[in-house]
Amino acid sequence: MALLTAVPPDGPGARDVLRAVRRAIEGPGPAVLLGADAPVEVPPGTAAVVTTSGSTGYPKSVVLSRSALMASAFATSARIGEGAWLLAVPPAYVAGLQVLVRSLMAGHEPAMLEGHFTAQGFASAARLMASSVGGRRIPTFTSLVPTQLVRLLDAADDPEVVSALRSFDAILIGGQALPEPVSERAAAVGARIVRTYGASETSGGCVYDGVPLDGVRMRIEGGELQLSGPTLADGYLGDPERTDAAFPRDADGTRWYRTGDAGEISDDRLRVFGRLDNVIISGGVNVSLDRVERVVRGLPRMADAVVVAVPDDRWGEASVVVVPEAVPGSDAELIADIRRAVGGALGAPARPARLLRVATLPTLSSGKPDRVALRRLAAS
């Protein structure tokens, strides 16, 4: 089956993507290729192929079936409710794709925020979503990445923005970890935040606030989080070896997805620590940069900080904290606070070596930090 439309991350418009996804989900197809620009052949039953380089630069094309996308959409509505959705993230990524699928399954045309994301544009779109049927208000939902939420909270002196944040029955936050100070700021203005965890390989978020959606199973194998259930992708397009490595089967035939993340499950609730491969060896000690970044982002003014690895003549490897130029405070003050907090939480070997300011943090079109670019900047 040939793919209907190739959709690069920066185009075409969301309405075009919606039409393509509608035909792939509700009609006979064909499927849609998201995040790339060349039609290819895909297996029968495929609704979409999400192609993304990710934050570390490795390209992958994830094959998602109709049944996986619909299972995810139905499980989401069972968990948070059904209603109208605002598309505020790029439709060429799995989070945006799922907003469209959930809207189609609920029978509501999604509202769309196209172009450059602004707090005022978000507020206007949220205001226009208000509607009712038979006197009953239709619940509204949206999906954001943490940087978008921070931008909205920074504009909280505008009552229209605050009203917009409060208007949604749930705001799903995914793509990367949400710093606790940001979560607290959101709660303070009355925003109902749901932290989601998942990947393109799981049809998007499949664990909400640490609890798996209906039908999703979790386990820890060798310290690695693995997920199973009806939302799993079929694999990677044209790459059977990588598919077999990422989606092992148990003796009973159950498929699992190896997330590559470290985590723990306590009282059926998941806690994710970060990437298993985002680890440096500094002075002979293994240091998880995801854990370092989580501590750093919990400090005042550090919600946007990114921690990356650099070579170090003395220790072999070290970490650098990259922050926007506009963050107040002297470099000496900030790095001292950071080293004190990280050392207290994770031990002296985990303390970052230095601070780097940049005019603008480079991001991918998905809104995640471009860690490849940041590592180059820090190394230079």
What does this structure look like?
- The protein has 380 residues and is α/β, with parallel strands linked by helices.
- It folds into two domains: 5-266, Rossmann fold; 278-379, GMP Synthetase, Chain A, domain 3, CATH 3.30.300.30.
- Helices cover 31% and strands 29% of the residues.
- The chain contains eleven helices and 23 strands.
- Helix 1 (14-26) crosses helix 3 (94-106).
- The radius of gyration is 21 Å and the shape is globular.
- The mean pLDDT is 89.
Topology:
Elements: E1 5-7, H1 14-26, E2 32-34, E3 46-52, E4 60-65, H2 66-80, E5 84-87, H3 94-106, E6 111-112, H4 119-128, E7 132-133, E8 136-137, E9 140-144, H5 146-154, H6 159-167, E10 170-173, H7 180-188, E11 193-199, E12 204-208, E13 211-212, E14 217-221, E15 224-228, E16 235-236, H8 240-246, E17 257-266, E18 269-275, E19 279-282, E20 285-288, H9 289-297, E21 306-312, E22 316-324, H10 331-346, E23 354-358, H11 371-379
Helix pairs in contact: 1-3, 2-3, 4-6, 9-10
Radius of gyration: 21 Å
Structural class: alpha/beta
Task: Just give the CATH class of the largest domain.
Answer: Alpha Beta
Going across the major beta sheet, what is the strand order?
A: 6-5-9-10-11-12-13
Kindly state the percentage of residues in helix: 25-40%
